[in-house]
Amino acid sequence: MAQATVATPGRRLVAGNLPSPLPDWKLTQVTSLPGFNEWETAGMMFYPMWNSTGTLVVQPSFLTDLASIPEWLWSIYCPYGDAFGEVWLQSAIVHDALYASELCSRADCDWTLLEAMQAQGCSWFTRNTFYTAVRAAGWSVWNKHTPKSIAAARQMVSLIPS
Fold this sequence. Notes:
Layout: E1 3-4, E2 13-16, E3 26-33, E4 36-41, E5 45-48, E6 54-58, E7 63-64, H1 89-101, H2 106-119, H3 124-137, H4 139-142, H5 147-156, E8 157-161
Antiparallel strand pairs: 1-2, 2-3, 3-4, 4-7, 5-6, 6-8
């Protein structure tokens, strides 16, 4: 089972022994507001895309809210893992990076979340709950993107062709 330290505001997250293609990651919380937390990656991250289009590269200092889960659901599904030991933090970062940069379609971004959660060892129920949620509501974030926000994200996120 995946192991990670429990995140609390102002505390650094460091994980080990995660069954994922992203073996080394660290995050620092940079914003903590009621109902909103923002995290910053503290190292370069790589993720081999499921459709063999290449490897996703996320630069250090990429900002993410992890999994965009309403705070009232955090007792069941918090933004980085749950009380049952499932951890989806890396999957959430990959998804946020793909959404922000629009390097692929929204459908491919959402499918990548599903695939990454499976690679991290999340249960069928959890990963399909997340997938259904992003398919149903992800448009609200996707439609807020501007050419300027996409260009800024692409300074932090890239896809190296296979």
